[in-house]
Amino acid sequence: MAQIKQRGVIELGKSLLMVVLGLALLFIPEVTLVSLARLVAIFLIVQGIFVALSAFRYRRADINKYAFGLEAGVSLIVGFIILYNPGTTISFFVVVLAIWAILGGLLMAFSFNQLRKAGVTSWFLFFNSLVAMTFGLVLIFEPLRGGFALASIIGAFVLLHGLLSLFSAFSR
């Protein structure tokens, strides 16, 4: 019984965090995305420091210290780039998502054409390819605004999920 109550408290805490994150993503997406980017940056910097310390600690061991050094260096460099340029980082990830959507849309259009030649017509596949390519193009031309829009969509999902989890925690 004590475990069930403890699980309920954990579920309640998790649910409240999701509600707060969902609201933040919905109402202040730019601040939330920049904060998340900075958290990733801090993680990478701390990880880079620990990897560098590991390389230093094992400097006399018969292991490849250069791999440790390279990992530490990359983590530190990427961490500082993200820390001082969070907007650029957000735009970069949105552009990567846009390229993925465009390429996926092109591949769906190719698949539609191949299926049509084989006598199978799936107009849903064709329209899906158009939606994916349009989505990708919008993100390419407006990466920051696209990132904020995606944050709002994710925020709505996280908020709904958090509220449902909250109701679930109280319904026991």
Automatic annotation (TrEMBL):
<dbReference type="Pfam" id="PF03729">
    <property type="entry name" value="DUF308"/>
</dbReference>
<feature type="transmembrane region" description="Helical">
    <location>
        <begin position="147"/>
        <end position="170"/>
    </location>
</feature>
<keyword id="KW-0812">Transmembrane</keyword>
<keyword id="KW-1133">Transmembrane helix</keyword>
<feature type="transmembrane region" description="Helical">
    <location>
        <begin position="122"/>
        <end position="141"/>
    </location>
</feature>
<protein>
    <submittedName>
        <fullName>Uncharacterized membrane protein HdeD (DUF308 family)</fullName>
    </submittedName>
</protein>
<dbReference type="GO" id="GO:0005886">
    <property type="term" value="C:plasma membrane"/>
</dbReference>
<feature type="transmembrane region" description="Helical">
    <location>
        <begin position="35"/>
        <end position="54"/>
    </location>
</feature>
<keyword id="KW-0472">Membrane</keyword>
<feature type="transmembrane region" description="Helical">
    <location>
        <begin position="90"/>
        <end position="110"/>
    </location>
</feature>
<feature type="transmembrane region" description="Helical">
    <location>
        <begin position="66"/>
        <end position="84"/>
    </location>
</feature>
<dbReference type="InterPro" id="IPR052712">
    <property type="entry name" value="Acid_resist_chaperone_HdeD"/>
</dbReference>
<feature type="transmembrane region" description="Helical">
    <location>
        <begin position="12"/>
        <end position="29"/>
    </location>
</feature>
<dbReference type="InterPro" id="IPR005325">
    <property type="entry name" value="DUF308_memb"/>
</dbReference>
